[in-house]
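User: Show me a protein chain along with its predicted structure.
Assistant: Here is one chain, sequence first, then structure tokens.
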Amino acid sequence: MKAEIITIGDEILIGQIVDTNSQWIGQELNKIGVSVYQISSIQDEKQHILNALKEAESRADIVILTGGLGPTKDDITKKTIAEYFNDDKVVEYPKVIEHIKVLFKKINHPFKEIQKYQAELPSKATLLMNQLGTAPGMWFYENDTVFVSLPGVPYEMKGLITSEVLPRIQKQFKLPFILHKTIMTVGVGETVIAERIEDWENNLPEHIKLAYLPSFGKVRLRLSAKGTNKEVLEKEVSDEVKTLSLLISDIIVGYNEEASIENNVGEFLREKGKTLSTAESLTGGKIASTLVAVPGSSVYYKGSFVTYTAELKEQLLGVSKQLIDKCTVVSAEVAKEMAIGCLNKLDTDYAIAVTGNAGPTTDHNDKSVGLVYIAIASKNDVEVYEFNFGQPREKVINRTVTKALELLRKNILKINE
């Protein structure tokens, strides 16, 4: 089954709000075996809506619209849909009016005649009662295509999708089973991974697809499979994941959408009974916030020094002024002293220290934008690594966070091999 999602509203097109509705609808449709082939955002203008409906009908089995169902003059979706279906007759639903009156009474809001417009639907529409708001949804089945029009308010839309739309789709169509499996990797780019798994990827069954989803030093590998037999499909995907894991076991940190390097590092620390602290400059505490986002991280993570200035590196971590004057704060020497100071002051088994130029300026030193030093300290040794993550600032900071955790992971594994 193919679906298209159309969001209506100028506020999306001008960037005033972000379209989170389509993302959520796509996820929910996928769970029941419906594949979304296109998502569009269009103006709240009649001809645009008519064109979008016509094009979607030519491609999809299910068309879902969100937005434009309010009682004011700028909300024209309902009238435009009626015109599209040559439906001149309007049906008023008294139960919708009563529902609106009850809602308004609860919030001590007067009911006005304009609200009755919400209860008027094209005669060809099937009412989808909106228990969470005033605008009901509409369901049409024309020319072997389902059209659904829903309010744009996210919690109202979600309520209707869950209670009305998904059950109706499942009842009307025989749906396949769609399965996704995500493998999270760190440390190498998608092209390197592709080279390592080329033969395996070339021999995947036709109904199992692989997608590469890179982001700041991480690559998600997503296997997607579609079929009619759930048990057979799950076994096929499981077998493929096992084969893939043997090829890239050194860079895998998890096997689901929520898998992350911070979770993986936390598991290693917890298992070994080890502790960690961090000293951050250019990342401004982002390594710390990433670590503590993991539930239970207090077992192994003690805390952080955010020493954004040279003075704080001296005062809090004991980095000597002479060393900073000689090497600058963006140097391997300073990163090493930061890590040692952090390790000793917080008395942990491991410490991460990072310093560098995130940009756009170089902060009175001669080091290039994007240059980063990461130090990993343990009770036995300190290793310092140099990278140039380029630009822009956001990329440098995020790459530093991921690379620091990746290096710690490798250090832990090496020591405990």
